[in-house]
Amino acid sequence: MSVITEMYREMGIRNSVVNLGKEIEATLKERFDTIDEIAEYNQLKVVHAMQKNHVSAACFEYASGYGYDDLGRDKLEKVYADVFHTESALVRPQITCGTHALALALSANLRPGDELVSVAGKPYDTLEEVIGIRPSKGSLAEYGVSYSQVDLLEDGSFDFENIPKAIHDNTKIVTIQRSKGYQTRPSFSVEQIGEVIAFVKKIKPDVICMVDNCYGEFVETIEPSDVGADMVVGSLIKNPGGGLAPIGGYIAGREELIENCGYRLTSPGLGREVGASLGVMKDFYQGFFLAPTVTASALKGAIFAANIYEKLGYHVIPNGSESRHDIIQAVEFGKPEGVIAFCKGIQAAAPVDSHVTPEPWAMPGYDSDVIMAAGAFVQGSSIELSADGPIKPPYAVYFQGGLTWPHAKLGILMSLEYLVRDGIVSL
Ligand SMILES: *Cc1c(COP(=O)(O)O)cnc(C)c1O
Protein backbone atom coordinates (compact mmCIF):
# COMPACT_ATOMS: atom_id res chain seq x y z
CA MET A 1 0.00 0.00 0.00
CA SER A 2 1.53 3.24 -1.11
CA VAL A 3 -0.09 5.27 1.68
CA ILE A 4 1.99 3.28 4.15
CA THR A 5 5.27 4.01 2.37
CA GLU A 6 4.22 7.64 2.14
CA MET A 7 3.47 7.76 5.86
CA TYR A 8 6.85 6.19 6.64
CA ARG A 9 8.47 8.86 4.47
CA GLU A 10 6.57 11.58 6.29
CA MET A 11 7.93 10.17 9.53
CA GLY A 12 11.46 10.31 8.16
CA ILE A 13 12.10 6.78 6.92
CA ARG A 14 13.48 6.51 3.39
CA ASN A 15 12.09 4.12 0.78
CA SER A 16 15.12 1.84 0.70
CA VAL A 17 14.68 1.11 4.42
CA VAL A 18 10.96 0.48 4.02
CA ASN A 19 11.62 -1.79 1.05
CA LEU A 20 14.17 -3.88 2.91
CA GLY A 21 11.60 -4.22 5.69
CA LYS A 22 9.01 -5.41 3.20
CA GLU A 23 11.39 -7.92 1.69
CA ILE A 24 12.29 -9.36 5.09
CA GLU A 25 8.70 -9.40 6.34
CA ALA A 26 7.64 -11.42 3.29
CA THR A 27 10.06 -14.20 4.31
CA LEU A 28 8.62 -14.40 7.83
CA LYS A 29 5.03 -15.20 7.04
CA GLU A 30 5.12 -18.78 8.26
CA ARG A 31 6.84 -17.91 11.52
CA PHE A 32 4.41 -15.09 12.16
CA ASP A 33 1.53 -17.50 11.53
CA THR A 34 2.91 -19.83 14.20
CA ILE A 35 3.25 -16.93 16.64
CA ASP A 36 -0.36 -15.93 15.94
CA GLU A 37 -1.47 -19.47 16.64
CA ILE A 38 0.32 -19.51 19.98
CA ALA A 39 -1.28 -16.14 20.80
CA GLU A 40 -4.68 -17.51 19.81
CA TYR A 41 -4.29 -20.44 22.18
CA ASN A 42 -3.05 -18.25 25.02
CA GLN A 43 -5.84 -15.74 24.42
CA LEU A 44 -8.38 -18.55 24.83
CA LYS A 45 -6.59 -19.74 27.96
CA VAL A 46 -6.84 -16.29 29.57
CA VAL A 47 -10.46 -15.63 28.55
CA HIS A 48 -11.45 -19.12 29.68
CA ALA A 49 -9.93 -18.47 33.11
CA MET A 50 -11.69 -15.10 33.39
CA GLN A 51 -15.03 -16.66 32.47
CA LYS A 52 -14.59 -19.58 34.82
CA ASN A 53 -13.95 -17.22 37.71
CA HIS A 54 -16.90 -14.95 36.85
CA VAL A 55 -14.86 -11.78 36.45
CA SER A 56 -17.30 -8.88 36.67
CA ALA A 57 -17.27 -5.09 36.70
CA ALA A 58 -17.23 -5.22 40.51
CA CYS A 59 -13.67 -6.62 40.27
CA PHE A 60 -12.46 -3.25 38.98
CA GLU A 61 -13.68 -1.20 41.92
CA TYR A 62 -11.30 0.89 43.97
CA ALA A 63 -10.27 -0.70 47.27
CA SER A 64 -8.34 1.25 49.90
CA GLY A 65 -7.18 0.88 53.49
CA TYR A 66 -6.43 -2.63 54.71
CA GLY A 67 -7.99 -4.24 51.69
CA TYR A 68 -9.93 -6.97 53.45
CA ASP A 69 -12.21 -8.78 51.02
CA ASP A 70 -10.76 -7.09 47.97
CA LEU A 71 -12.84 -9.01 45.46
CA GLY A 72 -10.94 -7.92 42.35
CA ARG A 73 -7.58 -8.82 43.86
CA ASP A 74 -8.66 -12.23 45.12
CA LYS A 75 -10.33 -13.15 41.84
CA LEU A 76 -7.38 -12.02 39.75
CA GLU A 77 -5.17 -14.35 41.75
CA LYS A 78 -7.53 -17.21 40.88
CA VAL A 79 -7.38 -16.21 37.20
CA TYR A 80 -3.57 -16.26 37.26
CA ALA A 81 -3.57 -19.61 39.06
CA ASP A 82 -5.86 -21.06 36.40
CA VAL A 83 -3.77 -19.74 33.52
CA PHE A 84 -0.57 -21.07 35.05
CA HIS A 85 -2.32 -24.29 36.14
CA THR A 86 -1.20 -23.82 39.73
CA GLU A 87 -3.02 -24.19 43.03
CA SER A 88 -2.52 -20.57 43.92
CA ALA A 89 -1.07 -17.21 42.92
CA LEU A 90 -0.06 -13.92 44.47
CA VAL A 91 -0.52 -10.95 42.09
CA ARG A 92 -0.10 -7.60 43.75
CA PRO A 93 0.73 -3.96 43.12
CA GLN A 94 2.67 -4.12 46.41
CA ILE A 95 5.19 -6.36 44.61
CA THR A 96 7.20 -3.53 43.10
CA CYS A 97 9.05 -5.30 40.28
CA GLY A 98 10.40 -8.62 39.07
CA THR A 99 13.39 -8.58 41.38
CA HIS A 100 11.08 -7.98 44.33
CA ALA A 101 8.85 -10.89 43.28
CA LEU A 102 11.88 -13.19 43.06
CA ALA A 103 13.31 -11.97 46.37
CA LEU A 104 9.91 -12.49 47.95
CA ALA A 105 9.48 -16.04 46.63
CA LEU A 106 12.95 -16.94 47.90
CA SER A 107 12.92 -15.24 51.29
CA ALA A 108 9.40 -16.52 52.03
CA ASN A 109 10.40 -20.12 51.55
CA LEU A 110 14.02 -20.29 52.77
CA ARG A 111 15.08 -20.48 56.41
CA PRO A 112 18.50 -20.11 58.05
CA GLY A 113 20.65 -23.11 57.18
CA ASP A 114 18.86 -23.80 53.91
CA GLU A 115 20.70 -23.71 50.62
CA LEU A 116 19.60 -22.22 47.33
CA VAL A 117 21.04 -23.75 44.15
CA SER A 118 20.96 -22.21 40.69
CA VAL A 119 21.27 -24.92 38.04
CA ALA A 120 21.17 -22.36 35.22
CA GLY A 121 24.47 -20.64 36.02
CA LYS A 122 24.75 -17.05 37.11
CA PRO A 123 21.32 -15.53 37.79
CA TYR A 124 20.07 -12.15 36.59
CA ASP A 125 22.26 -9.28 37.80
CA THR A 126 19.86 -7.89 40.38
CA LEU A 127 19.60 -11.29 42.06
CA GLU A 128 23.27 -11.22 42.94
CA GLU A 129 22.47 -8.79 45.71
CA VAL A 130 19.27 -10.58 46.69
CA ILE A 131 21.20 -13.79 47.20
CA GLY A 132 24.32 -12.13 48.51
CA ILE A 133 26.67 -13.26 45.74
CA ARG A 134 27.66 -9.60 45.88
CA PRO A 135 27.55 -8.74 49.60
CA SER A 136 24.51 -6.63 50.20
CA LYS A 137 22.37 -5.40 53.08
CA GLY A 138 19.42 -7.67 53.74
CA SER A 139 20.62 -10.41 51.40
CA LEU A 140 19.70 -14.05 51.92
CA ALA A 141 23.33 -14.64 52.91
CA GLU A 142 22.88 -12.24 55.84
CA TYR A 143 20.01 -14.43 57.02
CA GLY A 144 22.13 -17.56 56.92
CA VAL A 145 20.96 -18.95 53.58
CA SER A 146 23.81 -20.40 51.55
CA TYR A 147 24.04 -20.48 47.79
CA SER A 148 25.69 -22.59 45.18
CA GLN A 149 25.60 -22.57 41.43
CA VAL A 150 26.05 -25.09 38.66
CA ASP A 151 27.33 -23.29 35.58
CA LEU A 152 25.88 -24.12 32.20
CA LEU A 153 27.98 -26.07 29.73
CA GLU A 154 29.73 -24.18 26.99
CA ASP A 155 26.84 -24.71 24.57
CA GLY A 156 24.44 -23.23 27.12
CA SER A 157 22.85 -26.53 28.16
CA PHE A 158 22.36 -27.84 31.70
CA ASP A 159 25.29 -29.67 33.27
CA PHE A 160 23.53 -32.91 34.19
CA GLU A 161 26.79 -34.42 35.40
CA ASN A 162 27.45 -31.77 38.03
CA ILE A 163 23.90 -30.95 39.15
CA PRO A 164 23.68 -34.03 41.46
CA LYS A 165 26.91 -32.95 43.19
CA ALA A 166 25.37 -29.59 44.08
CA ILE A 167 22.20 -30.94 45.67
CA HIS A 168 22.55 -31.70 49.36
CA ASP A 169 20.36 -32.43 52.38
CA ASN A 170 19.94 -28.72 53.07
CA THR A 171 19.09 -27.81 49.46
CA LYS A 172 15.66 -26.28 49.77
CA ILE A 173 15.13 -24.39 46.51
CA VAL A 174 16.52 -24.95 43.04
CA THR A 175 16.19 -21.89 40.82
CA ILE A 176 16.09 -21.87 37.04
CA GLN A 177 16.07 -18.72 34.93
CA ARG A 178 14.08 -19.18 31.71
CA SER A 179 15.30 -16.14 29.80
CA LYS A 180 18.96 -15.44 29.20
CA GLY A 181 18.24 -11.91 30.33
CA TYR A 182 21.23 -9.90 29.15
CA GLN A 183 23.69 -12.78 28.98
CA THR A 184 24.81 -14.48 25.80
CA ARG A 185 23.60 -18.01 26.58
CA PRO A 186 20.48 -19.28 24.83
CA SER A 187 17.15 -19.01 26.67
CA PHE A 188 15.50 -22.25 27.75
CA SER A 189 12.39 -23.74 26.24
CA VAL A 190 9.71 -24.82 28.69
CA GLU A 191 10.41 -28.39 27.63
CA GLN A 192 14.09 -28.08 28.60
CA ILE A 193 13.05 -26.60 31.94
CA GLY A 194 10.77 -29.59 32.45
CA GLU A 195 13.68 -31.95 31.84
CA VAL A 196 15.92 -30.33 34.40
CA ILE A 197 13.09 -30.16 36.96
CA ALA A 198 12.37 -33.89 36.52
CA PHE A 199 16.08 -34.60 36.89
CA VAL A 200 16.37 -32.53 40.07
CA LYS A 201 13.23 -34.06 41.59
CA LYS A 202 14.58 -37.54 40.99
CA ILE A 203 17.60 -36.64 43.09
CA LYS A 204 15.61 -34.88 45.81
CA PRO A 205 11.81 -35.15 45.47
CA ASP A 206 10.99 -32.53 48.12
CA VAL A 207 13.15 -29.78 46.66
CA ILE A 208 11.23 -26.66 45.57
CA CYS A 209 11.84 -25.79 41.92
CA MET A 210 11.41 -22.09 41.21
CA VAL A 211 11.50 -20.59 37.72
CA ASP A 212 12.33 -16.97 37.01
CA ASN A 213 9.76 -16.59 34.23
CA CYS A 214 10.55 -12.95 33.34
CA TYR A 215 10.16 -12.21 29.61
CA GLY A 216 8.96 -15.77 28.94
CA GLU A 217 5.24 -15.62 29.66
CA PHE A 218 3.00 -16.48 26.70
CA VAL A 219 5.90 -17.06 24.31
CA GLU A 220 4.89 -20.73 24.23
CA THR A 221 1.60 -22.52 24.84
CA ILE A 222 2.86 -23.99 28.11
CA GLU A 223 4.51 -22.38 31.11
CA PRO A 224 7.13 -23.85 33.46
CA SER A 225 4.36 -24.61 35.95
CA ASP A 226 2.97 -27.08 33.38
CA VAL A 227 6.19 -29.09 33.55
CA GLY A 228 6.72 -29.39 37.28
CA ALA A 229 7.83 -25.98 38.55
CA ASP A 230 6.59 -25.39 42.10
CA MET A 231 6.73 -21.61 41.71
CA VAL A 232 6.90 -19.35 38.64
CA VAL A 233 7.75 -15.72 39.17
CA GLY A 234 7.60 -12.61 37.01
CA SER A 235 7.05 -8.89 36.57
CA LEU A 236 3.86 -7.16 35.47
CA ILE A 237 5.73 -4.46 33.59
CA LYS A 238 6.89 -7.23 31.30
CA ASN A 239 4.75 -9.73 29.35
CA PRO A 240 1.82 -10.55 31.68
CA GLY A 241 0.99 -6.90 32.37
CA GLY A 242 0.20 -6.47 28.69
CA GLY A 243 1.55 -2.92 28.77
CA LEU A 244 -1.30 -1.72 30.95
CA ALA A 245 -0.27 -2.81 34.45
CA PRO A 246 1.46 0.25 35.93
CA ILE A 247 3.37 -1.80 38.55
CA GLY A 248 3.36 -5.26 40.05
CA GLY A 249 4.68 -8.78 40.14
CA TYR A 250 3.28 -12.26 40.41
CA ILE A 251 4.17 -15.61 41.93
CA ALA A 252 2.11 -18.64 40.93
CA GLY A 253 2.59 -22.07 42.42
CA ARG A 254 1.77 -24.55 45.15
CA GLU A 255 -0.63 -23.24 47.78
CA GLU A 256 1.73 -23.76 50.71
CA LEU A 257 4.52 -21.82 49.03
CA ILE A 258 2.28 -18.97 47.91
CA GLU A 259 0.81 -18.74 51.40
CA ASN A 260 4.34 -18.27 52.72
CA CYS A 261 4.87 -15.51 50.14
CA GLY A 262 1.76 -13.76 51.44
CA TYR A 263 3.07 -13.82 55.01
CA ARG A 264 6.39 -12.48 53.87
CA LEU A 265 4.91 -9.75 51.66
CA THR A 266 2.68 -8.32 54.37
CA SER A 267 3.11 -9.80 57.81
CA PRO A 268 2.93 -13.09 59.69
CA GLY A 269 -0.69 -13.57 60.66
CA LEU A 270 -2.03 -11.18 58.02
CA GLY A 271 -0.69 -12.72 54.83
CA ARG A 272 -2.82 -12.37 51.73
CA GLU A 273 -5.84 -10.99 53.58
CA VAL A 274 -4.52 -7.43 53.40
CA GLY A 275 -3.12 -5.26 50.63
CA ALA A 276 -5.64 -2.96 48.95
CA SER A 277 -5.47 -2.90 45.19
CA LEU A 278 -5.85 0.91 44.98
CA GLY A 279 -7.63 1.04 41.66
CA VAL A 280 -5.12 -0.85 39.53
CA MET A 281 -7.32 -3.90 39.04
CA LYS A 282 -8.88 -2.94 35.73
CA ASP A 283 -5.42 -2.48 34.25
CA PHE A 284 -4.21 -5.76 35.74
CA TYR A 285 -7.15 -7.65 34.26
CA GLN A 286 -7.15 -5.89 30.92
CA GLY A 287 -3.38 -6.11 30.66
CA PHE A 288 -3.49 -9.84 31.32
CA PHE A 289 -6.24 -10.13 28.71
CA LEU A 290 -4.03 -8.33 26.15
CA ALA A 291 -0.78 -10.04 27.17
CA PRO A 292 -0.90 -12.96 24.70
CA THR A 293 -1.16 -10.69 21.64
CA VAL A 294 1.19 -8.08 23.07
CA THR A 295 3.80 -10.79 23.63
CA ALA A 296 3.22 -11.99 20.07
CA SER A 297 3.85 -8.46 18.74
CA ALA A 298 7.07 -8.16 20.69
CA LEU A 299 8.16 -11.56 19.45
CA LYS A 300 7.49 -10.62 15.83
CA GLY A 301 9.54 -7.46 16.33
CA ALA A 302 12.46 -9.45 17.74
CA ILE A 303 12.42 -11.90 14.83
CA PHE A 304 12.02 -9.11 12.27
CA ALA A 305 15.00 -7.25 13.70
CA ALA A 306 17.12 -10.40 13.84
CA ASN A 307 16.47 -11.05 10.18
CA ILE A 308 17.07 -7.47 9.05
CA TYR A 309 20.36 -7.09 10.89
CA GLU A 310 21.53 -10.58 10.03
CA LYS A 311 20.90 -9.78 6.38
CA LEU A 312 23.04 -6.65 6.81
CA GLY A 313 25.88 -8.82 8.11
CA TYR A 314 25.65 -8.26 11.86
CA HIS A 315 25.85 -10.94 14.53
CA VAL A 316 22.42 -11.26 16.08
CA ILE A 317 21.46 -13.30 19.15
CA PRO A 318 19.22 -15.28 18.78
CA ASN A 319 19.84 -15.62 15.05
CA GLY A 320 17.19 -15.07 12.40
CA SER A 321 15.90 -18.63 12.28
CA GLU A 322 16.26 -19.97 15.85
CA SER A 323 13.19 -20.83 17.87
CA ARG A 324 12.29 -18.28 20.54
CA HIS A 325 11.78 -18.68 24.25
CA ASP A 326 11.69 -15.03 25.28
CA ILE A 327 11.29 -11.60 23.69
CA ILE A 328 14.85 -10.25 23.95
CA GLN A 329 16.95 -9.58 20.86
CA ALA A 330 20.60 -8.63 20.78
CA VAL A 331 22.44 -7.10 17.82
CA GLU A 332 26.21 -6.68 17.89
CA PHE A 333 27.43 -3.58 16.10
CA GLY A 334 31.13 -3.89 16.95
CA LYS A 335 31.40 -0.12 17.52
CA PRO A 336 29.76 2.41 19.81
CA GLU A 337 28.32 4.49 16.95
CA GLY A 338 26.10 1.58 15.91
CA VAL A 339 24.66 1.14 19.40
CA ILE A 340 24.03 4.87 19.73
CA ALA A 341 22.36 5.26 16.33
CA PHE A 342 20.18 2.22 16.96
CA CYS A 343 18.97 3.52 20.31
CA LYS A 344 18.32 7.00 18.90
CA GLY A 345 16.15 5.41 16.22
CA ILE A 346 14.14 3.40 18.75
CA GLN A 347 13.60 6.56 20.80
CA ALA A 348 12.56 8.55 17.74
CA ALA A 349 9.88 5.94 16.98
CA ALA A 350 8.31 6.08 20.45
CA PRO A 351 4.79 7.39 21.08
CA VAL A 352 6.09 9.23 24.17
CA ASP A 353 9.26 11.37 24.39
CA SER A 354 10.17 10.82 20.74
CA HIS A 355 11.64 14.33 20.73
CA VAL A 356 14.33 13.57 23.30
CA THR A 357 17.71 12.24 22.30
CA PRO A 358 19.20 9.47 24.42
CA GLU A 359 22.90 9.75 25.27
CA PRO A 360 25.25 7.26 26.94
CA TRP A 361 25.72 7.92 30.66
CA ALA A 362 27.33 6.33 33.71
CA MET A 363 24.33 4.52 35.16
CA PRO A 364 24.59 3.22 38.73
CA GLY A 365 25.24 -0.51 38.83
CA TYR A 366 26.91 -0.71 35.43
CA ASP A 367 30.61 -0.93 34.78
CA SER A 368 30.49 1.12 31.56
CA ASP A 369 28.41 3.95 30.12
CA VAL A 370 24.99 2.79 28.99
CA ILE A 371 22.59 4.26 26.47
CA MET A 372 18.90 3.60 26.94
CA ALA A 373 15.99 4.26 24.65
CA ALA A 374 12.51 4.18 26.06
CA GLY A 375 9.49 6.24 25.29
CA ALA A 376 6.96 4.30 27.27
CA PHE A 377 3.55 4.90 28.82
CA VAL A 378 4.73 3.02 31.94
CA GLN A 379 8.15 4.17 33.12
CA GLY A 380 10.82 1.54 32.62
CA SER A 381 8.36 -0.84 31.03
CA SER A 382 10.21 -3.36 28.94
CA ILE A 383 7.18 -4.92 27.28
CA GLU A 384 6.98 -1.56 25.52
CA LEU A 385 9.52 -1.04 22.75
CA SER A 386 12.81 -0.27 24.44
CA ALA A 387 16.52 -0.75 23.91
CA ASP A 388 19.70 -0.40 25.84
CA GLY A 389 23.33 -0.83 25.06
CA PRO A 390 26.38 -0.82 27.29
CA ILE A 391 29.15 1.15 25.60
CA LYS A 392 31.74 -1.63 25.68
CA PRO A 393 32.77 -4.49 23.40
CA PRO A 394 31.16 -6.22 21.59
CA TYR A 395 28.97 -3.08 21.40
CA ALA A 396 25.74 -4.99 21.45
CA VAL A 397 22.34 -3.46 21.79
CA TYR A 398 19.60 -5.37 23.59
CA PHE A 399 16.10 -4.59 22.72
CA GLN A 400 12.69 -5.92 23.50
CA GLY A 401 9.01 -5.17 23.54
CA GLY A 402 6.48 -3.57 21.30
CA LEU A 403 2.83 -3.40 22.34
CA THR A 404 1.74 -3.77 18.72
CA TRP A 405 3.51 -5.32 15.77
CA PRO A 406 3.21 -2.18 13.59
CA HIS A 407 4.91 -0.18 16.32
CA ALA A 408 7.67 -2.74 16.81
CA LYS A 409 8.21 -2.63 13.05
CA LEU A 410 8.32 1.18 13.02
CA GLY A 411 10.94 1.13 15.77
CA ILE A 412 13.17 -1.29 13.93
CA LEU A 413 12.86 0.55 10.62
CA MET A 414 13.62 3.84 12.40
CA SER A 415 16.70 2.30 14.01
CA LEU A 416 17.91 1.29 10.56
CA GLU A 417 17.11 4.74 9.18
CA TYR A 418 19.37 6.27 11.86
CA LEU A 419 22.17 3.81 11.04
CA VAL A 420 21.88 4.73 7.35
CA ARG A 421 21.82 8.45 8.14
CA ASP A 422 24.98 8.15 10.22
CA GLY A 423 26.70 6.29 7.40
CA ILE A 424 27.09 3.09 9.43
CA VAL A 425 24.90 1.05 7.09
CA SER A 426 24.52 1.69 3.40
CA LEU A 427 21.54 0.40 1.46
C1 LIG B 1 13.74 -8.25 34.19
C2 LIG B 1 14.22 -9.48 34.79
C3 LIG B 1 14.34 -9.61 36.18
C4 LIG B 1 14.12 -8.48 37.14
O1 LIG B 1 12.96 -7.77 36.93
P1 LIG B 1 12.88 -6.21 37.35
O2 LIG B 1 11.42 -5.91 37.14
O3 LIG B 1 13.76 -5.47 36.41
O4 LIG B 1 13.29 -6.09 38.75
C5 LIG B 1 14.77 -10.82 36.67
N1 LIG B 1 15.07 -11.84 35.86
C6 LIG B 1 14.97 -11.75 34.51
C7 LIG B 1 15.33 -12.92 33.66
C8 LIG B 1 14.54 -10.58 33.95
O5 LIG B 1 14.44 -10.47 32.62
Automatic annotation (TrEMBL):
Gene3D superfamilies, per database record: Methioning gamme-lyase, C-terminal domain (3.90.1150.60), Type I PLP-dependent aspartate aminotransferase-like (Major domain) (3.40.640.10)
A Pfam family it matches: Met_gamma_lyase
Protein name as catalogued: Methionine gamma-lyase family protein
UniProt source species: Dorea ammoniilytica
